[in-house]
Specification:
Blueprint: H1 16-22, H2 30-35, H3 37-48, H4 54-63, H5 68-87
């Protein structure tokens, strides 16, 4: 059985809100903006594990090459999540893998 005292839990709350804030001037519809929220979480994870977002940025740009507005939105939210994690002091843990 897992011992919860061995783990740290960081509650972030609704990830739609930071995605919406990052994309408020993008011109995308609400549905498209909400779909980007996972990129915010991924950016935070990249920071926590001391990884760059370069590979994912390249993948997004390649995958959405025919929809540059979607690619740009996802990259912006990914980088926003990374920057949020780097600047908020609630995430004191930083792993090097």
């Amino acid at each position: 059985m897992l011992n919860p005292s061995l783990y740290s839990l960081y509650k972030q709350g609704d990830l739609s809100l930071p995605a919406e804030e990052a994309l408020k001037d993008s011109g995308l519809d609400q549905k498209s903006i909400v779909k980007c929220k996972n990129m915010f979480a991924l950016g935070m994870i990249y920071w926590m594990f001391d990884r760059t977002v370069d590979h994912t940025r390249d993948f997004i740009n390649q995958k959405f090459a025919k929809k540059p507005e979607i690619a740009s939105a996802n990259v912006k939210v990914l980088e926003s999540g990374f920057n949020y994690a780097a600047n908020v002091h609630a995430l004191a843990v930083h792993f090097n893998v």
